[in-house]
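Annex B. Sample input.
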Amino acid sequence: MKYSESHKVNLIEVISLEKHIVRKYVDRLAICRIDGERLGWEELQEIKSEILGVDVIAIEVYPAHSKVVNLRHTRHLWYGSIITFAVLSCCVHPEFVD
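Annex B, continued. Sample output.
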């Protein structure tokens, strides 16, 4: 499957915000700024909270160099039960978990 086709698999909706376009998939958000500029952490956190909810855990993955596809300034936040399990069981100190 070509990249041009693969980015449509499991796409739920495309959301237009004031400064951003967000493609919501079953397992991730693909976020880019309309003006093409880079995204900051605060922007990602705000968009994640607005679309998925403030209590949802999402992560950003940095792949092996050979697997990088970087066509534009789009950031991907992965979410779902497997992400939540992995983060809570491996990466979060117990005192921070309710």
